[in-house]
Design goal:
Elements: H1 17-27, H2 36-51, H3 63-69, H4 85-92, H5 96-106, H6 109-114, H7 118-136, H8 151-164, H9 166-178, H10 184-191, H11 212-223, H12 226-246, E1 256-259, E2 261-262, H13 266-278, E3 282-284, E4 305-306, H14 311-316, H15 327-343, H16 345-349, E5 351-360, H17 378-398, E6 405-412, H18 426-444, H19 448-462, E7 467-472, E8 479-483, E9 493-494, E10 497-499, E11 509-512, E12 515-530, E13 533-543, E14 546-553, H20 558-569, E15 578-584, H21 587-596, H22 604-607, E16 612-617, E17 636-637, E18 660-664, E19 670-676, E20 681-686, E21 689-690, H23 700-703
Parallel strand pairs: 1-3, 1-5, 2-4, 5-6, 9-17
Antiparallel strand pairs: 7-8, 7-19, 8-12, 10-11, 11-15, 12-13, 13-14, 15-16, 16-18, 19-20, 20-21
Helix pairs in contact: 1-7, 2-7, 4-5, 7-8, 9-15, 12-13, 15-17, 18-21
Length: about 700
């Protein structure tokens, strides 16, 4: 008999009903004759499958069901579960990596059930039955060891699942990302009761983990005035549209935009959808990829819509595909991707790009890779890099960057309001959260015209430099010389983009693509938050513009710190070039971080505006080098490439890295930034304050604290 909390699955088309019924009946018989830890493992999968069964209607989803569904990925339940690679190794011995991987993959049954994707549910059930049958044939085995002889069978089953269904998996992901008819999340956003500040039970219908974080965020947004919501959404939608205008792209040729949604922000997103509609754009909100084969990593923002997530779980399973990755699977995945794009060609012609929402507040984790977590070896990393290049090449053929754009905005969640010594009472926490949230509404909607004028002083001065020298304050070891391009006609050309709040919200930076040769030295960030991870005493040394050495603190074994840098910042690339040098001007954001004591929780998107920053990897103009872009003063931005991206026509595999990671050095860590040429040294920032004439107004925010 099914559990009373089961989720309903619709069989209205009838195509997979028989296969599903057979599979769920077979799984309900688990663990059968199995004994020991293998029996426990398959019992866990059985219970999850039955919980995602067909006896209960989706409107009855509630907190209790959600907690049961996501118990093993919660911070409290993860350790000791079969998802924890080290705990799995203790229980399952030789089979641990494969079975822990499969449990992570099997959890896709949750979103597929909520979306009534019966075929996807059935495929997971049938593959699980195949794995179970291998163990069932060896009924006499109990305990944690002795599975070495069945590893080939287990591996073949999972590999066949990945290989045989690659075409369907890739096609599903492409279509759900671009087709307005895939409206599961959009329907919830547009039709749910978002004003019920006591419950917000609609959140449980998304099929994602919902914690007090998402509920509190939704309650707070429900309490904001309509004017504030419109202001928030306008910054987002208008920034997206201005991104097309700034780069000379015609948005009128497009009709679809893909939006990222952290759950809890539905009221903001509903208003954004309505504003996009007025601009002639239909919105698609796809789920964060649930499959091993289609997972993708973004620079600093989590794609799709998503609820709570456990960074440790995600880090431990970051390289699960290493158990199968190689030339054959790469070729299959590339062909499947190309076929998916071709199959959805007409949809992709209408695709304008991505409007992304990032959240921050919890601060960064400092994970250490578990001993039994899968990891790519060097040859696999080379194959992975080849895949990334070819996949991006294919994407460019169907969604060329000269026709698409993006925008990113970041909002704080309630974790931002928790004091270092712990949260106070609920009402005080809510009050502090609202205060911080409203401050970031102000920061994300700052008036642009004044910044444009101030940043023009910076750009004009920096254009006089042969190189820029950046030195750290006492205690900060930054000492670097950044080489500038030579301008053929300084009256009509510039090295620096005067960046407004369009693709990167909020306003506040001038940036360039430096010359690599002659760019030498060290950058040092005392503490910086990157892609959800916290780095202490991060140091990167450049020689002729390329990473030559790196380290960070906080680890007993320095190699663990280096591995975190390599995985998170470099994404397993070696000798990455410096793709960007910028000076942030958003002192209001910096002052707010100091005022609330949240410096270590600031996302890169905002933190990069609070001091000089350097990006490793591709330039800001990758794949758009040949487009002409102009600053508001009419000057053409000519520093659009470096010695790597200049190879795009002759040796494209060496031109791009599919990495662009920003590292910010806050004003407080800066001793000086100086524009240097043969005749003069012009100091721009000294002792963390702007001293260049015309920029002093930026210091006002420091005195407001």
């Amino acid at each position: 008999m099914m559990d009373e909390n089961q989720i309903w699955i619709d069989f209205s088309d009838g195509i997979f009903e028989e296969r599903y019924q057979l599979a769920i009946e077979r799984i309900s018989e688990f663990p059968g004759t199995l004994k020991g830890n293998a029996a426990e493992y398959f019992t866990v999968l059985r219970d999850l499958a039955l919980l995602c069964g067909k006896e209960r209607r989706p409107e009855n989803c509630c907190r209790k069901v959600n907690e049961l569904l996501f118990r093993d990925v919660s911070e409290e339940g993860y350790h000791g579960s079969f998802l924890d690679p080290d705990a799995a190794a203790e229980k399952l011995g030789d089979a641990a990596q494969l079975l822990s991987l499969w449990y992570a993959e099997f959890r896709g049954i949750i979103p597929f059930s909520f979306e009534n994707r019966v075929k996807d549910v059935t495929v997971l059930l049938e593959t699980t039955i195949q794995l179970f049958s291998v163990f069932e044939e060896r009924t006499g085995h109990a305990g944690s060891a002795g599975y070495a002889d069945i590893l080939p069978e287990l591996s073949d089953i999972i590999y066949s699942y990945l290989y045989d269904y690659a075409e369907e998996f890739m096609s599903d992901e492409v279509r759900h990302d671009a087709d307005p008819a895939c409206s599961f999340a959009l329907d919830l956003v547009m039709h749910a009761d978002l004003t019920d500040t006591s419950d917000h039970s609609y959140l449980y219908a998304f099929g994602e983990q919902i914690t007090e974080e998402e509920l509190t965020t939704a309650r707070m947004l429900a309490s904001l005035p309509e004017e504030t919501i419109r202001k928030m959404a306008s910054a987002f939608t208008e920034g997206y549209i201005r991104g097309f205008e700034a780069t000379g792209k015609d948005i009128r040729k497009k009709s679809v935009v893909s939006c990222y949604l952290p759950l809890g922000f539905e009221r903001f997103m509903r208003e954004a959808v309505l504003q996009f509609e007025k601009a002639g754009l239909k919105t698609v909100i796809n789920r964060h990829p649930a499959r091993l084969l289609t997972k993708r990593s973004a620079a600093n923002v989590r794609p799709g819509f998503y609820g709570a997530f456990n960074p440790e779980y995600e880090y431990d399973h970051k390289e699960d595909l290493a158990l199968f990755w190689g030339e054959k699977l790469k070729a299959k995945k590339l062909q499947a991707l190309k076929n998916a794009y071709e199959e959805n060609r007409q949809l992709l012609k209408a695709f304008s790009g991505r409007a992304c929402v990032e959240i921050f507040g919890a601060g960064g984790s400092e994970p250490v890779r578990k001993k039994n977590a899968p990891a790519y070896h060097e040859h696999q990393l080379a194959v992975l890099r080849e895949y990334a290049f070819r996949a991006n090449e294919t994407a460019q053929a169907y969604m060329p960057e000269e026709e698409t754009s993006f925008t990113i905005i970041a909002w704080p969640t309630v974790s931002i309001a928790k004091e270092p010594e712990g949260a106070s009472d609920a009402s005080a926490l809510q009050k502090r959260y609202r205060e911080i949230f409203e401050e970031f509404v102000r920061i994300n909607t700052l008036p642009e015209k004044r910044w444009q004028q101030i940043q023009q002083y910076l750009a004009d001065t920096l254009d006089r430099a042969d190189y820029v020298e950046v030195l750290g304050a006492p205690g900060n070891d930054t000492d670097i010389r950044v080489q500038m391009h030579v301008l053929s006609d300084p009256q009509t050309e510039t090295n620096f983009e005067n960046c407004m709040a369009d693709v990167n919200i909020p306003v506040g930076e001038v940036f360039t693509s430096p010359v690599l040769k002659g760019t030498n030295g060290v950058i040092h960030a005392g503490r910086v938050y990157i892609k959800g991870y916290s780095f202490r005493d991060l140091k990167i040394r450049f020689e002729d513009g390329r990473v030559a050495d790196y380290s960070c603190g906080g680890f007993e074994d320095p190699e663990q710190g280096r591995e975190l840098i390599r995985k998170v910042i470099f994404r397993d690339r070696d000798a990455l070039p410096m793709g960007e040098f910028a000076i942030g001007t958003n002192t209001a954001a910096f002052a707010a971080a100091l005022r609330y004591g949240i410096e270590d929780k600031m996302p890169v998107l905002i933190a990069e505006k609070t001091g000089p920053h350097f990006a490793v990897g591709d330039t800001c103009y990758s794949y758009e080098e040949d487009l002409m872009t102009f600053n508001p003063d009419g000057k053409r931005i000519t520093a659009r490439e470096n010695e790597c991206s200049a190879l795009r026509h002759t040796d494209p595999e060496k031109a791009y890295f599919q990495v662009h990671t920003d590292i910010t050095l806050p004003y407080g860590g800066i001793g000086s930034i100086t524009a240097v040429n043969a005749a003069e040294r012009i100091v721009i920032i000294e002792n963390g304050r702007f001293v260049l004439p015309g920029t002093e107004e930026l210091n006002d925010a420091f005195t407001e604290n």
